[in-house]
Amino acid sequence: MEENVSLPAAEKLAALTDREPTWQSPLLQQHHLVGRIWHPADGRFVEQKFLFEALVGSAYVLLGEKHDNPDHHLLQARLIRTLTALGRRPAVVWEMIPEARQPVLDRYWAKYSRDAAALGGTLGWDASGWPPWSQYQPIAEAAMAAHLPMYAAGLSKAAVRTLARGKPSFEFAKRQRALGLNHPVPKEMRRRSLEQLYQGHCELMPREALGPLLNVQRARDAVFAEHMLSAGVNDGALLIAGAGHARSDLAVPVFLARHQPGVRITTVAFVEVRDGVLDPTDYAASFSAPVLPFDYVWFTPRADNVDHCAKLRQKWQKPKGAKPHSSSDSPGNTSKAPAAPDEAPSEIAPTPDATTQPAPSTTPAAPTAPANDPPAPKSSAPAPAAS
Predict the structure, then answer these.
(1) Spatial distance between the Cα atoms of 196 and 348, rounded to a whole number of angstroms
(2) Which one, 89, 162, 218, 248, has least CB within 10 Å?
(3) Distance (Å, whole) CA 62 – CA 196
């Protein structure tokens, strides 16, 4: 597909970049990096037009966010609008929507609905534990305005629980080979993945106890890739997910490339700036990597200055600087760890100050369909063949 696509005229791309974002996050709006786009491979800043050219020629686009930053969702919506304005029609794949909710998305698509506000209610979003639907609604509005197909890719809480315990359900066990989860994890990739999880859990769990959470993280990445591959047959796919899932070295792109070697993938991370940190290369350490592990990094203001790790330490009564638990501690003992494997957050934050998505205490009841809906179309292609 990327070999045949013709790049849009430069003047059309330039017209799409005239308006600078109006920031919603209140902190550090005047920071040197805010609004700038960093290209780690070249070690330089690029204009929005350069990013747009890369996205329009990519089969798969991954937009990695910090969940509670409204600017990240506005920029995701902006990039969806840009792609559709340039003639692309990618499927939009959501980390946040459980796979079981796919019929809801199908019904809204079949009705050509543009009522994004109603979609959030029908999905039962406010009971899900994610930040308010009002933050994510612009993404849905952009997709629905262009009648893009949308796909639910979130694993159920039950699936997460069984994976973390090393006892996946019979159905998921059959799915693992097609997902590519039977491949061993290279040593360096495993080390870096565990370090990401260690930092994302505020250094409150020993690295050797994070194996179950790594299994869950890899399963999520594989499932997101599966949905992108099956949904993107016509014109590619775009993933809305936490930045940890979008990184090129560890996450969803690894599974995409394994199933489709040579396919063009572009990853974009939206990253909050930090006070006094003016060099973009200094943000790589937050991802436990020598270089920022994304194709592009778009810097934004901060949503808040809440120390989420301090809140976790207080919750689990673990003083800052205390020695981590020994490897003999059971990772499932919630009196000693911030998250038992069967209660793992559905998004592992890439940095200690990032907000993790809590697992909801209950699964919302299946939403009821609007009256007189037409039959829902088939929502996904068969799973990709095992590599």
Answers:
(1) 8
(2) 89
(3) 19
Integer CA distances (angstroms), 143 to 41, 83, 85, in order:
30, 10, 12
**What is the DSSP track for 31-43?**
-TTTT-EEETTTT
Residue 24: exposure state from Cβ atoms within 10 A (0-12, 13-18, ≥19): middle
Q: What is the DSSP letter of 125?
A: G
Check if the beta carbon of residue 301 is closer than 8 Å to that of residue 311. Answer: no
Beta bridge partners of 27: 302
SS3 call for 93: strand
pLDDT tens for each residue of 286-320: 898 999 999 999 999 999 998 888 888 887 765 55
Give the helix/strand (H/E) hosting 215: helix 211-231
**Are 157 and 359 contacting, i.e. CB atoms less than 8 angstroms apart?**
yes
Residue 356 φ then ψ, to 5°: -90, 155
Q: Residue 288 has which token pair?
A: 């436990």
Question: Tokens 């600017």 — which residue?
Answer: 71
Q: Are 214 and 190 in contact (CB under 8 A)?
A: yes
What domains lie within the chain, and their CATH numbers? 24-343 (3.40.50.11550)
Q: Is 198 helix (H, G, I), strand (E, B) or coil?
A: helix
Q: What's the whole-model pTM score?
A: 0.79
How many angstroms separate the CA atoms of 87 and 276, rounded?
40
Query: What does the DSSP assignment read for 264-293?
Result: -EEEEEEEE--TT---GGGGGGGGTSSS-S
CB-CB contact of 27 with 91 (8 Å): no
